[in-house]
Amino acid sequence: xxxxKLILGICLTISLTTVSAQxxxxxxxxxxxxxxxxxxxxxxxxxGQAFLSHRSQYVGxxxxxxxxxxxxxxxxxxxxxxxxxxxxNDMTDILSRTSFMANYSYxxxxxxxxxxxxxxxxxxxxxxxxxxxxxxxxxxxxxLFGPRQxxxxxxxDFGLALNLNKLQIGFAVxxxxxxxxxxxxSIGEKVSIYNQRHLRSTIKYNFVLNEAKGVIVYPMVMxxxxxxxxxxxxxxxxxxxxxxxxxxxxxxxxxxxxxSAGIRHKNFTFGYAHDFILSQVNAYSKxxxxxxxxxKFGENLEKQKQWNDEMNIRVDDLVESKKEQEEIIxxxxxxxxxxxxxxxxxKEENNRILRExxxxxxxxxxxxxxxxxxxxxMPVVTSNPKKSDEGYKSGESLKYLDENNQAPAAxxxxxxxxxxxxxxxxxxxxxxxxxxxxNTALLLNTSKNVRNAYVFYSTNKSEVxxxxxxxxxxxxxxxxxxLN
Length: 484
Fold this sequence. Notes:
By secondary structure, the chain is of the alpha+beta class. Helix content is 23%, strand content 42%. The protein has helices at 2-14, 299-373, 422-434, 461-471; strands at residues 48-56, 66-75, 81-92, 95-109, 114-129, 149-164, 167-173, 180-184, 190-194, 198-205, 207-210, 215-226, 229-241, 245-252, 256-265, 268-277, 287-297, 392-395, 400-401, 411-419, 441-445, 450-458, 479-483.
């Protein structure tokens, strides 16, 4: 075992001058917290979440990699922006590093189920080397002895995530700017650590088993690459319930098969992954283990988002309703303008009729005044019986029509005027009524097309004769029509 520790110590020390292996944290449960592999996934959920994780790789080998992280992320109220924080501590034998990264993401929405996310993670990374932890056989080797040293550099990660309904494609570039930390060993030689730029790519497809309960199963493939390191890949299959948890299997090529399981209860999540090592290292270590603890918060944001979506729909409906109402109002205003114009025409016509009536009234008053100024020659009444019917005319009621177009009743009608023009008959009738003779009506002689205006009707001839005396001198000609 001492020989193995010596070999590992030497290999790790040599790697400080020219790093060509994978430097980014390794995990078997990244599918449960995608922010750790791609900053574009920051704030992807409709609620806030925090995760605490610890991974022990090559359990049983002293100085084996130990990785711990704390991540917190949340979605902004607008649903487009996400923010987060990741604190990572990674130790491998005499090497260790701690990073503090602030995450930001933006979502460009295509439709309800498709979008493109952009992400950045930036912050500081402290790289440390502790020669005192090196275990060697040759205690006289001065290169491996020296004080603990640290350097802090700026670090930047970039990521993209394309979501097309149930398909998700991710691309990330950790350690984008290739920062460098330089140390001095005990004999004055400079030793450098480079943050090698890495590439990560993932593809995932969700098969929905129960949409109401949020049960899905998905395959996922990840590719990892770095300059000077062979291409690595993971193949995973995960059965997940949004409420209960998950079960997953991952094949890490040339390394191990990992089995992971998680439980969700209320706002808490607990997960464990066990790596069964397949490489030659299994002669010294049979497994690696990883724990993850999560907490979900800000569920009100999800409800608030749903409420906002409902309110936006209502606002859209109100806007559409407002447009319809404005169109109706505009249509009514146009109709009102048309009706106003028609009313103006009708008013003008009424005024014209009133002016015409006034003119006719003046003419009638003038005629009446002229009649009063003329000397009336009254005929001499004698006792000749043949003259007893003077001023009388008779006819058949079937040859006449009243104002209801019905045959008038038989009897005696006191006639005060006769007209061959209907308009003149109506004007005369209206004028007489305005003068107080409200009983005035018209009889149409259908054979002669003459309208007779009468002011009194009775079946008793004596009554009609008596009524006739009241109107003498008021009209030009007064006579009695007897209808049989």
